[in-house]
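Service request form, structural biology core

Requester: graduate student, group of Dr. S.
Request type: structure prediction, single chain
Budget code: on file
Notes: please return the result as structure tokens.

Sequence provided:
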Amino acid sequence: MKILYCNCTYAKVVPKDVKQDVLRQLSDSGRAFDAVADLCDMSARKDPALKKIADGGCTKIVACYPRAVKWLFHAAGTPLPDEGIDVLNMRVDSAEHVVKELLV
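Core staff response, request fulfilled:
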């Protein structure tokens, strides 16, 4: 399982305490993961790294609303696969819920 954590640095729509707690628990878990500063910014810049993420078999993305994450990749010209990707929503879910889903 590959995990991508988005820090949502620029949008500031995800509660800071949730982001910090998820990141801390994910780091403490010993699981390998990749982290990016902000998927929204990467999409706006059409960052080529999004293609690598979309093609790289990422199975869990920790960010915000699943539909928003899918459209960010689509807008950058690198759509995510229709199946096999779980997007966990730090914007509305608790850190405990997100971490539980990540570490299943």
